[in-house]
Design goal:
The chain is α+β, with helices and mostly antiparallel strands and 172 residues long. It is 63% helix and 18% strand. The chain is built from five helices and three strands. Strands 1-2-3 form a three-stranded antiparallel sheet. A hairpin with a 6-residue loop joins strand 1 and strand 2. It starts with a helix and ends with a strand.
Length: 172
């Protein structure tokens, strides 16, 4: 009889352990479902405000672009090649410009010899060792754009160049 009571106590203990494990598993599943639901809500619905803001900005951008016209890219070929004092001694720079109308693009193409002359003179004054830094390249890019727009203003162009890009940059 003592053996039967001990066996009954063990069975009750195992049932309690089994029930507590079941409760822990159910609680974990509920927590995962709630966490997943919250994550889905924030990912799907919280982004709507940002999406609406971006859509509003994109709606304003076409009106601004329509007044300027589509961007037109014009390569100033061949690349600019200059000899530099010091080391490295040679600089080769490929340049493209962005304009907002075909009229300005044609004006730049028509005046290419004068533009190239002035930009080559500017490039030949550059310190070769300084050009190894990114900030110097950005500064050179700005100086070239300013020089290009100065020339266009001097020639009474119908507009100006919006941006100047380096398409290649080699120093040897």
């Amino acid at each position: 009889m003592a053996k039967e009571n001990a066996t009954e106590d063990l069975d009750l203990g195992e049932e309690k352990k089994g029930k507590s494990k079941l409760i822990i598993i159910i609680a974990a599943v509920v927590l995962l479902l709630v966490g997943g639901g919250l994550a889905a809500y924030f990912l799907l619905f919280a982004g709507d405000e940002q999406t609406q803001e971006i859509a509003g900005q994109e709606a304003a951008a076409p009106a601004e672009a329509a007044s300027k016209g589509p961007a037109i890219y014009l390569a100033l070929d061949p690349p600019f090649v200059v000899t530099l004092p010091g080391h490295p001694r040679l600089l080769q720079v490929g340049v493209s410009v962005r304009v907002s109308s075909e009229q300005i693009g044609e004006f730049v193409s028509h005046n290419d010899p004068m533009i190239r002359h002035n930009l080559l003179n500017l490039l030949s004054t550059v310190d070769a060792t300084a050009l190894k830094a990114r900030s110097a390249k950005v500064g050179l890019q700005k100086r070239m754009l300013d020089e290009l727009n100065r020339i266009l203003k001097e020639l009474q162009a119908p507009g100006q160049v919006d941006a100047l890009y380096f398409t290649s940059f080699v120093m040897q």
